[in-house]
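Notebook entry, structure prediction.
Reason for the run: the old model in the group folder had no record of what sequence produced it. Starting over properly, with the input documented here first.
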Amino acid sequence: MTVLSVPVVHQHTDAVKRRPRPTIAQKLWAVSVLENLPIHDAVRITGYSATSLNKWKREKSMLVGFERAKTRKKNIGLTGAKAIVPDAYGLALYIRDIRRQEMALTAAHMISYLRVNHNEWLSEYMSTRKSAYSSLLRLLQRFAHRNGFSRQRLCRQKRTQEDLEETRLSFGRQFHEEYGDFPSDCVYNTYETGIYYDMSPKTIWAVKGEGAFVANAEKHSMRMTALLTIRADGQKLPIVFVIRGVILEDASNQTSLRAILRDIIM
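New structure, fully documented this time:
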């Protein structure tokens, strides 16, 4: 009978006995012990109550399917106190609709929603806080975090994601109509991306009271292009790095380039 190694359980020395809060990984370990030993032995080895062990055994499928950090997270769902924001479902749906339209979402949008739909609650909340705006801002930030939002840097684009997806689908249909008869080992999908290196530092160490001057300092970083290629049958080809590439106009140079690429592909 095999039992997994016992993880370190932190013992509290406080006078008040604290409720154990194991992580998802520790719960799975306790379940594995329970599946190999009787309940009283599992309680003695793990240090958890029989009620908790049986509960975690019933929830084993959800614990195993938990996709986030099992060694850090302690609950499989959003637990804790309920949100004091009125109509939390409506507010969550409202902010998701804003993002579905690819509009910039800020705390001002959530405040406007509360002012229009729950102005009485908003006025009461602001009047009972020492720092009204800061408290409301923290409340809305926690609300957004609990509903799957995070603060991210703004990315500007000229076309919406729906338009880009439609362009991708239309190109795929056109490509398969014209080149659908080609075998998969003759169809290549390439993508090029820029790589910057030898970037000049933004800050340096300098003697106090003296300047941070640097002689002959490079203002710009070096750049090269990486060409990524994959065949339609799933075979990935070696990455081609292009440094200071030039346009080939001579037919002989183009022929030599084709030979080099053929050697790389083969």
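Summary: The mean pLDDT is 80.
The old model has been moved to the deprecated folder.
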